[in-house]
Task: inverse folding
């Protein structure tokens, strides 16, 4: 699957979060900006930054809106965001028709002052919690769960000693997947759901601490990766340093890290829960090579996510790795889509085959997933037009069969090719000479010893899914 | 005072509201757009429209943002706002640094579904109500009172038979000035505070009903003016027609309509509480003519609000009315302000004197108010440079001396020229040959028999002002 | 005719020009900006500024584009336009479909360096000159005559002593209406066509000289009006002061100043060729009062241009002058036009009747012209709906019957109501109780002793019109 | 060298050109749009499209402006560009301070009607030709040579039978590098300079012919590559098909194709003058492997242009190819540059090292060129920080030592690291363990038997360079 297909046919991660606290008092808005920039692949529809100055009055300044990080922020707006503590957010999904109301961070005034909240995830009991809250008079201005979380923190804060206590009590009510960073006027707090479905890690540079969805955001700002936040852990960064409450941390075997972070969502230069994403994709390629060997001349990957798995397949099979595609660097959001009737196709405009490389060759083409099948079919057609004599498709994930309730926007079943077709049928539909999907029981070897959630392939969810959200 | 000075030195009205319900099912977004266009003088910083389709699922679609009505809306965005019931809003003041979050209408999900609220006013007990709400776990995403009102409606709705009942119970807690229009999925509701500080009226055209801050918005859309909403009245427009709850209506003598709507805020082509605004200004001019007669050749008004009062002075005094100024039609928001050091001045760029008219004449110049005095001084200088031999200034309002707690953004006392200077001093400072302010006891005759609030001149507020908001 | 109707149905002036030279070395871009701001009514489609620093290398810096002056220029872009000599331009008509290529000033490199040219007018032999030029290899990048003029100056420069000499020789070939300001790296030059069809005047402030289409632009920047450039005169402003070449100046009786500048185009606060525009409109109103007396209660003017003539009619007739209309100050370019099917109409959104003023009254309504008749009909309908018992229309210009070849964009004959209907028919079509157009032989008394062009009413053009441009 | 460094430190190609003629009458604007999209790497500062309808009046419609293709064009503007024949352009360099005047295509009216010209290149005698033209009265509105070319075509057209004849006569006067496509109302013409310095090729799809700077633009629109335009050839596409005038074609041995197209400018999926760009880079990598062998564990390429050469080095040396970098896909024009004082660096934000891949490895890093050396030094530092034990740099071009006069924007000598430092010094300055530049005498083997221009390395220009342009 190509990253650029996100806007057309692919899977969508909901969000990326980032937090920063500079003890030396320097402004953090630009670090948050670069951090979000590195997390842009996790959400392209809205973004925002909220900051506060820990040495001044308890006031949070925020700027957010629809668009990419470099659409929403300019040198001038970054300059205006004064403060040495703050959080940022990139989001895939905005409630359409409600303007920019639901861009995050959510900035609230509440009983103890003010808070900014950046949230990535999905609460399976979100609708229930919302109902409960509305029954006691709450109002909601957006569709996402961030307000639900804010209300819980606000209500728990009344009887809690401090914000982190309120966050903890709120977590006891929240079921689902989440990574949350909270900026209170004097604290930066980070938490992950006890299953560890969503990633969050800690970094440090000079006098500043950082929290980020992925470690690549730490690299981008020259910060050192310290460690992952543990699933269920509550990290509080105050002027006294880092404190940690691990009372809600579950045993390792119950954890359920999202396998799709490794397969597709995360950047290959990130390390999540001690597993290097690039390495995981290499292992996936190797596993595919073992499961589905085929005689061929060349292994190629579909940019961007298929590249590493293709490299792995090549290493596993001994068949040479090749670069078969040129991806247009200027393809972006505002690209005018070709009409059906035109000679041009979106795939051709984004990707071109290096015919020199594939001409006369039997090609193994590795991609991370097949959603609708149309993009894949087009690419195979292009390879063959360029002279590839055979195209064997290897997919570094098992077929999608079940919905994700944890914040991944999988298209509905009718659209998923694997839902209504056998592997043989798909192979024929996409025009491949052979097709191999990652075997379910090989997934483990692609991520070392971590415990993961593979419910989208198996239907086995790590927690009970309430009836009211099962369609 | 010139309308265009609003952005520099003047008084600011906070908002204008508009509501529409078309029983025949036609979209109302364009009517709301034109209605807001006619109310643009009441607020230029943000605007918004929220609509719902009474024949469909209970869903509200909204679009709002910073800017003038024709900046925020395009033909395309109006087209997307499908629905035959809706509310709109123009607002002077956005909370800066919080993005566009606080543009109205406020759209909420609450215990009984969804609501859109447009609100013009200021609650004197707003801060207290907010404190009370936060103590029970409420969160606030903006600085204005609209969320306070929304919470009260939401909480009251739990034990009320219907929305209008909840609105009524909410009104019992709210003290201050307000005009509110509420769109629920099947109802359009309009209310005014019991003192009638803020205006609101009802119109009709074909199968549609409208609510508007001023009747000029009804004219703009070709609707007939039906009547004012009574102070304290709750008007509910449903598919069964208009219903009215007048149980909170006070006796007429206790009402306190804002006198400044007549003097300056409202458009001259509006009728508010049965008093024609233009006529009121004519009467003001006549009263000035009686109080401060002077021998002169010409009466001129400072555009735009001074024009009608000048006409009145001319009629009252028998001295000919003249057109002394050309106002540049292209002066707008983005106008680059001249620097102190330049030959150019903002006043000169906006206004030019028709020297032909004033040359060799003794001129009576009528304006609606004097805030800082600098604009007035500049205009007098221009008149004299153009050959006016005398300039007698007549102001159609008494001097500002007290803060307004009801939503009018009066500059702080230090800036108000009348606060620290006598009438004689002001006359000298602005370079006038004589100066006359409207006499307090003549105000009544400018507005017929209506009861009005003149606290900004007298300090006598129609209701108790809580200590915590008195600076 | 309303100014805001320009975009719909009215007459269009093509351009306004401005020039500035500050001997003290100060930047002139901001003065040009404010000057163009004051001339904005002469053209709203493109604008531009070009400046040069007389103490530096011969380099002209320019910024131009589509839109109003405050759309195209920001504080930042004005800041970037460094230089103490420059010219500016506002233009009605852009060649559509050619991008912003034809915005002026036209900046050229030519045999002797570089020039910036701002031009207002129309050459009746423009097409012929263009043909001649192309026959010798010239290329044209826009549709307007500015390149024709530039080529002539460039070619004449080869054998001329200086720029003003080249301009003079170019003028000998150019037939038509024009006012041109030219910035060469060390000189500011201004010329008018020998008939004086287009206005141009000279101003001064401190160490700076200015050239402007109308004197109102001088007032806006605090400059003193010195005098008009004489028709046919070539004014050269260099560091040594103003020099003048009057060898092409014609006798006064042959001049043909455009009568429509006085009736409609120019701002009332301008003085053109020693005639005050406001005063001319007053005289026009008086002439109408004499020609078409009628018993009535009130004289009202249609904003903006009808106002002064209405005042004149009132003075002439002794019938009181009244203010019958409120014009919405926020109507601008991006205003969404109501559809035919809507309750709203463009006229209602722009103008509202003050019913208080006209109710029960016999009204004389004065406007400057009737083009299509639809706007006029709508306004009359509004007046009657507001209670006017009679509406007598008086038009301060004779009926349009002939095309203008000098740069005024009159709609084609089919559209002009006066072209195909008698005065009686028009009166009935617009729903007026009586109708009177300015009498041709009264025009002279509205402009004193100046010689004017009234070809649009009479078909008598001051110069021969080539066959090839008569449609 | 990274493509994204173009905006900071790299070399700049001036332009890309595209032409289309659809005999079936279909609009070509969208094909031109996608073609330019594929050529965007050749110029990011302005772009434009001009079209004409061969069955209608001789009228060219154009739209152009500053920005990337998908900034300047929207679905709506493409829709407005009606016509089945047209040309497009992407340009690196706009004359600053002259607005958007100089975006191409240049659209002109001239003696025989109208023309649109897209031009890529640089005329070494451009200044002389311009002088000559101005001496006979020509005016220039931009700094680039497109007007010079237009004038020559226009002047030659007077005595030529047809446009292609005029183009031919113009070519006789033009010395330098160029690829030009011209749209006349009934013809599409394409020419290349006789040395073939700039590329141009012909494609076909259905009933349409295309001309493009690179074949990748043909692929993007689903067109078949037909052949290169020969150096000196004039291709005329009319309704009667393709005609060719080869009278100015030089013998093959005199040709001088720009070697930098292969090394860096062109997309790897293009074929230029029968040489596949990707393959050429593979050969370059192999040549480097032979010239500069070194013991190492891994060969990596700097994205994007270093990738193919790295693959070649790996193939040549037998050392495994690895993927060492993740490039952020969202880096674009509006990216806020980090300040010196910040932890962040531009390089880190764009590129991150996959430490998993390089940890403990001796790495050979291949890049296409070293300009200033700073980016290279930063990348080496990142590799070492990620655990690379050695970093051996191989550069697929010889050191830059001489200016390019043919339209490549090489930074001035002072900035070029190779200009003032020996290879050993550079190696130390960038912190590499060894450094090898492509050997001059190996260049030939990277491009097969084509004759190329390598003046930037050798100072041997294929034609005489006039004194007046040598700085």
Result:
């Amino acid at each position: 699957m190509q990253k650029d297909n996100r806007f057309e046919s692919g899977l969508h991660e909901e969000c990326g979060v980032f937090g920063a606290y500079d003890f030396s008092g320097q402004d953090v808005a630009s670090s948050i900006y670069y951090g979000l920039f590195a997390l842009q692949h996790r959400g392209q529809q809205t973004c925002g930054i909220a900051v506060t100055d820990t040495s001044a009055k308890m006031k949070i300044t925020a700027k957010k809106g629809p668009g990419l990080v470099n659409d929403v922020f300019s040198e001038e707006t970054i300059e205006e965001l004064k403060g040495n503590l703050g959080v940022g957010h990139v989001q895939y999904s905005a409630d359409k028709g409600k303007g920019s109301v639901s861009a995050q961070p959510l900035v609230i005034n509440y009983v103890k002052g003010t808070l900014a909240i950046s949230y990535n995830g999905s609460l399976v009991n979100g609708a229930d919690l919302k109902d409960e809250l509305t029954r006691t008079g709450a109002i909601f201005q957006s569709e996402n769960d961030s307000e639900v979380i804010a209300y819980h923190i606000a209500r728990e804060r009344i009887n809690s000693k401090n914000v982190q206590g309120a966050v903890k009590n709120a977590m006891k009510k929240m079921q689902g997947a989440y990574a949350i960073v909270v900026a209170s006027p004097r604290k930066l707090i980070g938490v992950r759901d006890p299953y560890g479905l969503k990633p969050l890690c800690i970094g440090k540079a000079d006098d500043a601490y950082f929290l980020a969805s992925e470690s690549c955001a730490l690299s981008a700002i020259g910060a050192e990766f310290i460690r992952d936040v543990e699933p269920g852990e509550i990290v509080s960064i105050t002027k006294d340093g880092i404190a940690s409450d691990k009372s809600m941390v579950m045993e390792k075997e119950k954890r359920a890290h999202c396998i799709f972070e490794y397969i597709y969502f995360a950047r290959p230069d990130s390390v999540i829960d001690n597993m290097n994403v690039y390495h995981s994709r290499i292992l996936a390629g190797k596993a595919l090579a073992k499961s589905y060997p085929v005689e061929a001349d060349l292994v190629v990957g579909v940019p961007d996510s298929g590249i590493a798995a293709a490299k792995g397949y090549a290493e596993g099979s001994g068949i040479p790795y090749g670069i078969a595609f040129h991806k247009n660097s200027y393809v972006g959001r505002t690209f005018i889509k070709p009409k059906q009737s035109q000679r041009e196709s979106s795939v051709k405009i984004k990707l071109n085959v290096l015919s020199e490389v594939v001409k006369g060759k039997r090609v193994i083409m590795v991609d991370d997933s097949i959603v609708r099948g149309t993009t894949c079919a087009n690419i195979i057609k292009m390879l063959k037009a360029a002279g590839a004599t055979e195209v064997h498709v290897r997919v570094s994930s098992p077929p999608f069969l079940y919905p994700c309730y944890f914040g991944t926007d999988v298209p509905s079943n009718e659209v998923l090719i694997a839902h209504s077709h056998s592997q043989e049928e798909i192979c024929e539909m996409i025009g491949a000479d052979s097709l191999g999907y990652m075997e379910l029981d090989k997934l483990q070897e692609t991520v070392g010893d971590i415990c993961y959630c593979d419910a989208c392939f198996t239907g086995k969810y790590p927690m009970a899914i309430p009836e009211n959200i099962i369609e």
In short: The first strand of chain C starts at residue 12 and ends at 13.
